[in-house]
Q: What sequence folds into this?
């Protein structure tokens, strides 16, 4: 019989947690039971996925002990991590060395850097983007990644930038890169979605605009920085993306300069990436280098992808590569992706690679 896994999700009712449940089901990942852990400050303002509606795939078990779980997904940073999971997380950080029989053997996949940055002797989870690992091995000459029980799925923007830069660099040496990322409200959770909706409605009816989350009017506007209770959000996300790019790219390609901007959209992020190659290259050849698993490059006859169009789509949508008029080796790349879906798909693909390794 196919092995089935006992799975736990921290933040199962968050936007990302809901998407993770959907992707697990779509990928037909063998789940025997699913345990939901909610952080202290979850905001279930939007409809929560009812796991009981999927009896063939999931059996939501509240009685399963955390130490009995095979896989744990961390999909929320709100509040404290459940106390019952602390032995699981500590065991995962210690690695794969032999341990007493009662030590939890769960594999932990962190989607949101819920464990924070490691300090001192703490062990960092291995950053993984399974669909890019063959390119990484070709560019740095290393073999497969070492075994582990603690993995980190990079921020969706870091996944997109890594995918674009690594695929280009595999065929064309790069000189420099600069990225401007347009973030959706869903990055801040369901409360931000609700506030943007109210801002949009109220601004059209000349009513007072709520600002508790964004600290300013986001509807029909762009914000380079936020106020309110998420005043440092863009700075923190930017730091996380830069740190993950440094770690994941590892000097194989030039580290891109990154700037974040809050966009008045509910879902999906978009980015404008300027890349300069060491030698001029035809945009058609650059586009061909980008196309592949999880990246769809538009033809010239097709319209540019948008954040609205990317919602609900697993692929990274890339517009036709545009040469810079004044720099012969410079090109512009416009891309859009469903941030929640890409994060969930990558995390599930990490879980699938762990499952496949254990079968060997």
A:
């Amino acid at each position: 019989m196919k092995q089935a896994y006992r799975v736990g999700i921290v933040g199962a009712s968050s936007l990302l947690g809901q998407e993770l449940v959907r992707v697990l089901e779509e990928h037909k990942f063998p789940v025997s039971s699913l345990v939901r852990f909610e952080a202290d400050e979850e905001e279930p303002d939007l409809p929560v996925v009812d796991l009981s509606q999927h009896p063939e795939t999931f059996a939501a078990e509240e009685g399963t002990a955390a130490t009995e779980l095979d896989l744990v997904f961390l999909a929320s940073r709100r509040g404290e991590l459940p106390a019952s999971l602390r032995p699981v997380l500590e065991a995962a950080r210690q690695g794969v060395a032999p341990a007493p029989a009662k030590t939890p053997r769960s594999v932990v996949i962190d989607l949101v850097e819920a464990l924070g940055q490691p300090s001192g002797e703490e062990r960092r989870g291995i950053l993984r983007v399974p669909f890019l690992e063959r390119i990484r091995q070709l560019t740095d000459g290393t073999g497969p990644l070492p075994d582990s029980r603690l993995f980190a799925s990079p921020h969706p923007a870091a996944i997109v930038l890594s995918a674009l830069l690594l695929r280009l660099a595999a065929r064309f040496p790069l000189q420099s890169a600069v990225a401007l990322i347009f973030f959706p409200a869903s990055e801040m959770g369901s409360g931000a979605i609700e506030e943007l909706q109210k801002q949009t409605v109220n601004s059209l009816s000349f009513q007072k605009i709520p600002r508790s989350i964004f600290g300013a009017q986001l509807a029909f506007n762009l914000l380079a920085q936020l106020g309110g209770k998420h005043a440092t959000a863009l700075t923190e996300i930017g730091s996380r993306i830069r740190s993950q790019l440094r770690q994941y790219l590892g000097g194989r390609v030039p580290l891109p300069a990154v700037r974040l901007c809050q966009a008045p959209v509910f879902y999906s992020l978009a980015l404008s990436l300027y890349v300069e190659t060491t030698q001029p290259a035809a945009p058609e050849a650059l586009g061909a280098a980008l196309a592949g698993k999880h990246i769809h490059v538009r033809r010239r006859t097709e319209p540019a992808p948008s954040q609205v169009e990317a919602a609900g789509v697993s692929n990274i949508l890339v517009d036709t590569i545009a040469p810079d008029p004044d720099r012969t080796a410079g090109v512009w790349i416009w891309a859009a992706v469903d941030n929640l879906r890409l994060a969930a798909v990558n995390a599930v693909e990490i879980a699938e690679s762990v499952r496949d390794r254990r079968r060997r």
